Amino acid sequence: MAAAATPTAPDQAPKMQVPGQLPFDPSQAPVIEGFTPITLSKNESFKEKFLRKTKENPFVPIGCAATAGALLYGLRAFHQGKTRQSQLMMRGRIFAQGFTVVAIIVGIFTTSFKPKQ
């Protein structure tokens, strides 16, 4: 019974780690077998990337703004005691969230079918 617990090949001995040492270097990108990361030709700022993504799929920011607007307006109505209007705005928020998710999915499909440049 004790013989079954020992490794069959001596070259496959478990590696011992030093306590407190990570098994990888967090300052470097992980190495994933079979995956080659895409390198961008230039570094984009946040603003440039946001504008590029908005031009690629303008419905996502519209859906995000509609979701935030419905949420804020619904919370304001709830605070004022207008329960009917608050409920309608919360339903509108759910609709806007669904619209945003569908816009993201459609954007992913259209991007995947675009020819590579």
From TrEMBL:
Residues of the HIG1 domain: 31-117
Transmembrane region(s): 58-75, 95-113
Family annotation (PROSITE patterns): HIG1 (PS51503)
UniProt xrefs under InterPro entries: Hypoxia_induced_domain, RCF1
Region (Disordered): 1-23
Record's compositionally biased regions (Low complexity): 1-10
Biological process terms in GO annotation: mitochondrial respirasome assembly
Places the protein is found: Mitochondrion membrane
Record key words, sorted: Membrane, Transmembrane, Transmembrane helix
Any one GO cellular component localisation term in the record: mitochondrial membrane
Keyword Membrane: yes
Protein name (Swiss-Prot/TrEMBL): HIG1 domain-containing protein
Organism per entry: Gambusia affinis (Western mosquitofish)
